[in-house]
Amino acid sequence: MRLPALAAACLLLACPKKDEPKPVEAKPVPVKVEPKLPESAPNVAAMPPRPDAEVEIVGTWSSTVKGAAKHVVVMQAEPCLPVPAAPKRFGEMVLSEPGSLFAEFFLPQGTMASVCLYALDDKGVVIGALVMPDTPKRFEGLGELMVGPHKVEVVPLPK
To answer: What angle do CA 146, 148, 153 make, to 5 degrees?
Structure first.
């Protein structure tokens, strides 16, 4: 039994020792840069619709119109004067006693509109008017769009 162990030892001693393999240096791998595609124009049809423009009219008001049964503030597509027969209105609000003025209207983005204060007689006929300063104007944007604050006075229509 000694013979096989002795033969194995001789073989091990007789074989030249192999060197450990040297570590391979990692060479940087060039990164391939893909060309960028140009950005396309936004597809308007795919974009969600923008909310209506929220317009707030603020200030104070008074009136020198005798015989007025009520006063209203309106937002309309047409100029305030001359008073249009069939205006396209975006909103109307009856005003209480002269003093503080606050009205809020919602209209499509980009709409050109005028803000008018009208004095009406007991039959609903316009007898006094005022064109709010800064209007007509194109109303566009998000958040609250302001008209004012202004101090205004409704005056009788010329006869």
So the answer is: 140
Is there a domain that residue 106 lies in?
yes
Mean pLDDT, the chain, whole residue set: 85
* Contact call for residues 92 and 78 (beta carbons, < 8 A): no
CATH code assigned at 118: 2.60.40
In the structure encoding, which two tokens stand for residue 114, read together?
A: 């005028």
Residue 146 lies in a domain: yes
Q: What is the DSSP string of 90-149?
A: EEEEEE-SSEEEEEEEEE-TTEEEEEEEEEE-TTS-EEEEEEPTT-SEEE--SSEEEEEE
pLDDT digits (tens, 9 = 90+) for 122-151: 999 999 999 999 899 999 988 889 999 999
